[in-house]
Amino acid sequence: MEKMSRVTTALSSNTISGRTMFCHLDAPANAISVCRDATQVVVAGRNIFKIYGLEEEQFVEKLNLRVGRKPSLNFSCADVMWHQMEENLLATAATNGAVVTWNLGKPSRNKQDQLFTEHKRTVNKVCFHPTEVYMLLSGSQDGFMKCFDLRKKESVSTFSGQSESVRDVQFSMKDYFTFAASFENGNVQLWDIRRPDRYERMFTAHTGPVFCCDWHPDDRGWLATGGRDKMVKVWDMTTNRAKEIYCVQTIASVARVKWRPERKFHLATCSMMVDHNIYVWDIRRPFIPFATFEEHKDVTTGIVWRHQHDPHFLLSGSKDSTLYQHMFKDATRPVDKANPEGLCFGLLGDLAFAAKESLISSDANRKPYPGGDRRYPIFFFKKPDPTEQFAHVSSALSVFETDLDSNRMDWFVKTAQLYLLSGKPFAELCDHNAKVAQELKRPQVSTTWTMLRIMFSDPANLTTPGPNHNLSKLGTLPLMNSFSMKEMGSGMGTESRLERSKGDSRQDNIHLEPGNSHISNNNEENEETEGSDGQAEYMFGDAELDDDDLYSVEHDNQTEEQEYALPQEAFQLRHEIMDNPSAPEHLQQDKADSPHVSGNEAEVTCLTPIESFSLISISQPLYSPHLPASFFCPIVREMLSYYAEQGDVQMAVSVLIVLGDRIRKEIDDLTQEHWYMSYIDLLQRFELWNVSNEVIKLSTCSAITCLNQTSTTLHINCSNCKRPMSNKGWICDRCHQCASVCAVCHHVVKGLFVWCQGCSHGGHLEHMMNWLKSSAHCPAGCGHLCEYT
Length: 789
Description:
Strand order of the largest sheet: 1-28-27-26
Number of helices: 15
Radius of gyration: 40 Å
Structural class: alpha+beta
Number of strands: 36
Shape: globular
């Protein structure tokens, strides 16, 4: 093959021209590359490998490199690159781990030149040296990078990143011996091709995999990286430590990044999922794209500028099986549609508002605020720059302060810290949270918690701790335990009394006296009668209640008893009320005969009503003791929506967690997720990290529970052999040495481990702190000067 001369710094006499155009491909594209004179583009994918000519009006297919009746996996390409010095030389990265070079100058139909099969897994990237014709670099899923000399049959160097798979490799445009490699663990390594044993520099660039990197064509030390964390970062590599100088936040994972020719601060990006658009960013204004190309209908897989000195043409391939040439003048400018107004609340209620200066100045009728005008105008002007094409907008910023005394958020912090959301029975959670709200002088919230306890607690098990609140099997009147009968009984009827007698040897009375709503029961040792499987139903009136309404007692000698039915008339003639009436004789006989209730355990219950409170005989109970939880769900749902709309999302989320399945199905998932995200955001603003994490763990929304599961993997390498450790213990599988041994006490560290990033030695935190107080040298004896910060 002939060696070609380098492209000059200026465009040739044949000026590049064209328009926005596209062509349909036979299959989705994985990567594209353009030849050095910008007249042809190669498209590669799993089922396509073709060269298209770039004419002024259209794409023209020039050559199909997939030849043969049964194409091998060598034609299934994950990446492709056209040499920028040799116009007939291409290289592809195959999905079967092969690195293949292609010579377009061959007279035969099959243009395959050399085949390297040294990688064990898929090759993700291939890259030619910008000035050396025969030097080719590859990065594979197996974690290795290999440098090939095309004049030899095998690789000349192998670089091990001692990490997970290599996603991208790029030779430096200005430094002959340097190349950069990005990895799936978030690291970026810089290597010298003359030293394959160890990298020159390594730093963590992203949280998650780094999918791409690109050296700046003009500035020697700038390296752009893109990752799954949806960020594009620009690093200055000229300093001793890699310094992040710019950061662009995108809306999806960044799959490709390419610097724009002749524009120092512009770069293009595309995503590997969700977002199909191509964005050109001005890294100095990272909050809105400088230009957008929206033609593709599926994920964009490859982008390349048509000529390394022409910033006006961009080529792209996509999974929608199209190949596009974009004219920069046809791009959408998001800044033209941007709203120059902004509104933001501060943590303590301060309000900042930015708007066009013309809108603020024209508001002449605005009344002054009490205590003086609190507006602080800040004008955003930039000096005219011929290369700056953003629309110039001057805005005024107004800040409205709040009265700290009237808008303090102490209650929010204390409530978040004191609320109990799990770990105790439902009734205790409600009582505790009601008490917290009462102490913080929030009576409405406190009452809400109390009502929730009443609505959703089992009446038979509803108890309130206190000196006179001991309820046994007669304590099935929850409303009496929470509300004062005195308030209910004012101005009603005449006094009446209902008494039940169960024996003569001992009496336990339940009294309801004026001003006292407590229910007292002196029989504290009373146990559940054997065979009781239901709740007692209480009816107020003169009709006698069947004894089995209070107790379900199994009788040894069950005889047919007279059935006492409630009269149908609401008001009937009353019998003479005696002071201590006894139960019917046959009931007393049954009690005496029952093997479960002895004479000494017989009880007499006396309900003494409040003055002026009439107990009226009715044919139906005043309330149903068997109301299902679903009966209260609609009103609870409205209550939660009310609190959320009022801004108290803390109450909405807390009730949602405490009630759990009782109410969760009544509220749609999107609303729940919105409430959770709002509350978690507030907690994190107040730095309540533990409470925030507890809320995330207790949530049942899949979008919420995953918030504390991202970026939690810790990859550990053995300090002896430098190989990755398994998760089975502290012994390395390869060298069989204890990896985390304290350099001071020489015991295995099973807890908090601190190590020096310079020499990799470390140990127990307390031991290392004490050692470094008196000595600067590493306790392992390696001679390294360790520093604890």
